[in-house]
Amino acid sequence: MDSMDSMDSLITAVKETPSHILLAAFVALVVVAFYTLYAVLHLVAPKPRPVLPSERTYITTTPNGKETVTRQLPCWHDRWLAERHKSETQDLNNPHASFVPDTGSIEPAEVRMSVVFPAYNEEDRILPTLEEAVEYLDATFGRSTHLNPNTIKKPLSRSPSPRRHHMLNAPREDLTGYEIIIVNDGSKDKTVDVALQFAREHGLHDILRVVTLEKNRGKGGSVTHGLRHVRGEYALFADADGASKFSDLAKLLEGCEEVVDGSHRGLAIGSRGHLVGSAAVVQRSALRNFLMRSFHLVLMILTPPATSRIRDTQCGFKLFSRAALPHIVPYMHAEGWIFDIEMLMLAESAPAVPVLGSGGAVIGTSPGIKVAEVPIDWHEVGGSKLNVIQDSIKMALGLAVLRASWMMGVYRRRLT
């Protein structure tokens, strides 16, 4: 009875309060709620840890077959970061200020293809993956010419694309070779030893490079770290378990070429969406399939339009053109399983670039980086480190925090 009286008194008080006071109170409540949420997001939003000095080096084999050598990692990201800081702090009104490249600036490629494998305790699964990858990469791209000319494997010939005649950052048609970067995410097993022994047996000296993170960062942190150091005209990250058929990289290259814009920015992602209803999916547990569909529903609600239409955001087989990397990699925050979605959201929100006509003249602009979703062959591989229930909940919460952080300005495309 007392609660009813209290409710009646409250309703009466609200009715007697002038409308302008109610409006002011409502606005004040909204402002307080906004800044409270903003403060909470600053506390809980993922923040990548700084890179340690040893993580800027890599280990590779030497031609003598026994020794390994540690070398400095090349890093396009460091140069980009210095140029970006300079562009944000220089006086734009100073007519004598030196020219600073735009945010899409990146060093020229040295090889045709870079492959990044994030690896955490993968000694039992990485060997078949490397065998399949090297067989395809040798046949398709050949090896760098700094190797013994008698052992160089020539790549398959490629016909030039007519679209490249009027394109900024167009890749060199004569560029060959590849590199493999294995990012060892603090493994406790013999992942590094297995990879280096494979490199010795296959003569992959300074082609297969092992980068070791002193502390485990998660799959997203490993992939981001690897992509900061790629030298390829194209960069692929692939799961070390070999679940995706590696030769389907050809499909990704074709898909990427179909969507690249006037600055040669483009993404192609492997997709298992066509496998829904197949034995590979039906044989999974009912709980896993339910959580998969639930997460996709949350994804459609929380992500921007282009990303929400992608059927499979989580497949570990994604290809980037080199020109796309500076618009995505420097702004990455998520280091767990949700990082794929942040990459796709960053691609969608990338700044516009000129569209060139057949004569090379600018005829418009193209906002965002287009993504080609390409069906690939995929099979279940045992030994997954994904905890279905726990990680599904973490991914849903992580997606909500990620989306809110970008919408409310906790994350920005600025460095200062």
What does this molecule look like?
The chain is α/β, with parallel strands linked by helices. The protein has one domain (43-407): Spore Coat Polysaccharide Biosynthesis Protein SpsA, Chain A, CATH 3.90.550.10. The protein is built from twelve helices and eleven strands. The strands form three sheets. Strands 5-4-3-6-8-7-11 form a seven-stranded mixed beta sheet, with helices on both faces. It has a two-stranded antiparallel sheet with strand order 1-2. A two-stranded antiparallel ribbon has the order 9-10. α4 (126-141) runs parallel beside α5. The radius of gyration is 25 Å and the shape is globular.
Question: Which terms would index this structure?
Answer:
single chain; 416 residues; alpha/beta; Spore Coat Polysaccharide Biosynthesis Protein SpsA, Chain A; seven-stranded mixed sheet; two-stranded antiparallel ribbon; 12 helices; 38% helix; 15% strand; globular
